[in-house]
Amino acid sequence: MKRSFIVIFLVSVFTSCFSQDVVTLEQAITLALENNYDVRIAQTNLKAAATDNDYSFAAFLPQLNAVGNYTVNDTDQEFRFENAANNRSGNAKSISYGGSLQLVWTLFDGTRMFATRERIEQLERQGSLQVKEQMVNTIAAIITNYYDVIRQKQQLRAIQEQMLVNEERVKLAERKLEVGIGAKPELLQARVDLNAQRASIVQQQTLIVQLKENLNTLLDMKLPVVYDVADTILINTSLQREEVFDKVNTGNYSLLATQRSLFISQLTMRERKAERLPILNFVSSYNITHNDNVRLINPFSALQSDFQGFNYGLTLNIPILNGFNTQRLVQQSKIVYDRQQLLYDQQRTTVSAAARNAYINYQNALTILAIEEENILLAKENVSIALESFKRGSTTMIELRTTQQSLELAYNRLINARYNAKVSETELLRLSGALLK
């Protein structure tokens, strides 16, 4: 009865796995780049910077304004002359309205407009680098989570494989007890170990479900409610130190974005220095005015008058003294530039150290993986020999259980070694920007 239960349980586990849709790593990455919130937020910031850059040419265009006016004058007036008979007083009312077109075109502002446009363009490029940086970080997170699910699946299969050995232990202990050459404590211990592995399977399945949910969260829940992943952890064992370090120096998006910030601060300083220079503007306007004198006191005033005209010229604004505000802004921009230089140097050192450590971890992980792959074969062979010896009665239950525990530890080390090697590889590719093709 117990044997039937175990068989049914294992069949149900494997049937459940094979009945689920398998999501590949490439599919998960594609969904993440389309739906991950951090990526979408970075892309939104880039759109804002791109919009500013699209209109940056306006710094070279003139300003054209239309002005309209409508005025009513209602005043009491009194005119006195030497001849009192000519004195006049009363209420006068007039209405005037008109409009004008005013144009101001900056011809020279100390090259500030050029620096401003270039700074806006660099902000868009920096935004593009920040989007790529977020994409690389997201891809690395997807790879890490995806292979963590595979790691736990492999751990589940290892537990199931070891449970088969424990089932055999239980059957052998029962037979020995039936023929009078066994001891009940051995049977009880075998059943305890078997039940412990059953509980471990349930816990492992729960952990796998939770990890799948975490992976789905990174994809904005775009995966099916129930899905499966691949079974194998694929590792690139051919990464070369020189090639990786060259890519880190030229392709690390975080470092490139920081370098772009340094250039932007340099352009800001150039803008501030331009404020010390004169500003030459071309100005022009076209004016139309109409006056209606509704009530007149002065008989020499016109009932209506119309004015229209066109004027143009140049204005030169020479900054002389503004409370040393320009000097203060120039000094502040220089401080910002120096600070950005320090941040860039710091980031370059940090990335370089991270790359060196990542490559050391990568090499060590591959070495450990090779050792554990050899070790698992030895542990399996040892359990097989111990089980056969136990059947013949030449090995005790304690010795068999010890070999099982060694196999369990060997499985754990091997599975973790595979995962750690993949994580180390992923970190190297993330630092070099190679995850984004």
TrEMBL record:
Gene3D superfamilies: Outer membrane efflux proteins (OEP). Keywords: Cell outer membrane, Membrane, Signal, Transmembrane, Transmembrane beta strand, Transport. One of its GO terms (cellular component) is efflux pump complex. InterPro entries: OMP_efflux (IPR003423), TolC-like (IPR051906). Its main location: membrane. Residues 1-19 form the signal peptide. GO terms for molecular function: efflux transmembrane transporter activity; porin activity. It is found in: Cell outer membrane. SUPFAM superfamilies: Outer membrane efflux proteins (OEP). Belongs to the outer membrane factor (OMF) (TC 1.B.17) family. This is TolC family protein.
